[in-house]
């Protein structure tokens, strides 16, 4: 499929089938994330993938406070995206320009991960609501690091796509 077809096919899945995800497919998603561009080639992220029911359950529980993200426990895999230190060039440039390059870089890596997952027939949902302290404790993530996102990964229980409701191009861009 071409890129626009792929982008149209990718959606946030909230209902996963009870089918394990092949580790080879997850490695391809990680490779796509690894190839994502980053400021000064800093690549300021690592991903921790929970695959066993026990570890997925721990990650899911951390994302379900106050009744949020109830669906995430059905996903057979959860990736935790951890922000790492940027290299000196990215850090210096970011300070000079008052930009958070690491967070942009993480967004690019996560997009690559999720698009590759879609290409492979997997479904994903990017999660920003979670108990970071609990994840750090359960997955031995140093206190000095930040967990920025979770990605639920699996096979959709229902393969039909929802209609995408997006603003028209003339509302999101202008040519000058």
What features would you describe in this structure?
- This protein has a single domain (3-157), classed as NADH Oxidase (3-Layer(aba) Sandwich).
- It is built from seven helices and four strands, in the order ααβαβααβαβα.
- The protein has helices at residues 3-9, 23-34, 53-62, 88-97, 101-119, 132-138, 169-172; strands spanning 45-50, 77-83, 123-127, 146-154.
- It has a four-stranded antiparallel sheet, with helices on both faces.
- Helix 2 packs antiparallel against helix 5 and helix 3 (53-62) runs antiparallel to helix 6.
- The protein is globular and about 50 Å long.
- The mean pLDDT is 94.
User: Briefly, what CATH class?
Assistant: Alpha Beta
Oligomer: single chain
The gyration radius over C-alpha positions equals 17 Å
- The class by helix and strand makeup works out as alpha+beta
- Major sheet description: 4 strands, antiparallel
> Averaging pLDDT over every residue, what do you get?
94
CATH superfamily: NADH Oxidase
N- to C-terminal distance? 32 Å
| Helical segment count | 7
Q: What is the second-level CATH architecture? A: 3-Layer(aba) Sandwich
- Side by side, the strands of the main sheet go 1-2-4-3
């Amino acid at each position: 499929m071409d890129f626009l077809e792929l982008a149209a096919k990718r959606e946030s899945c909230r209902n996963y089938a009870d089918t394990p995800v092949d580790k080879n497919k997850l490695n391809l998603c990680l490779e796509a994330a690894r190839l994502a561009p980053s400021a000064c080639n800093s690549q300021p992220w690592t991903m921790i993938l929970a695959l066993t029911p026990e570890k997925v359950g721990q990650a899911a529980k951390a994302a379900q406070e106050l009744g949020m993200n109830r669906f995430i426990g059905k996903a057979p895999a959860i990736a935790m995206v951890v922000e790492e230190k940027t290299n000196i060039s990215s850090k210096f440039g970011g300070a000079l320009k008052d930009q958070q390059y690491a967070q942009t870089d993480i967004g690019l890596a996560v997009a690559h991960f999720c698009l590759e997952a879609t290409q492979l027939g997997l479904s994903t949902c990017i999660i920003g609501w979670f108990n970071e302290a609990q994840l750090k404790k359960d997955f031995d993530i140093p206190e000095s690091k930040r967990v920025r996102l979770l990605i639920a990964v699996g096979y959709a229980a229902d393969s039909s796509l929802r209609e995408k409701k997006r603003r028209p191009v003339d509302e999101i861009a202008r040519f000058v």
